[in-house]
Amino acid sequence: MNDETLPPCPECSGTYTYEMGALLVCPECGHEWTPSAASDAGESGVIRDAVGNVLSDGDDVTVVKTLKVKGHPTGIKAGTKVRNIRLVSGVAGHDIDCKIEGFGAMQLKSSVVKKA
Description:
By secondary structure, this protein is mostly beta strands. Helix content is 6%, strand content 30%.
């Protein structure tokens, strides 16, 4: 790879990326990654769950962390199953649109669920 084809840093978007052996390094934030990881991160529209599984519309997921819900005394407990999710580009990282029994329609972050 030459300097013109090196991707920007996936952490800070710095443009001064350089190669160090098999790794790419960002001198601005110190982040190191492999070129294959950079191409994986470049997949547009890919949403992954908390353990790295690729999610798609219609999947069933399980909540892995107890979540507080405004206006509800108990919130959503870890282990709650959510069926038939829909992936969206939501607000503040909320990229899953779903209906949860007992709560109704809401959006979740993919980082708090895992594929069932």
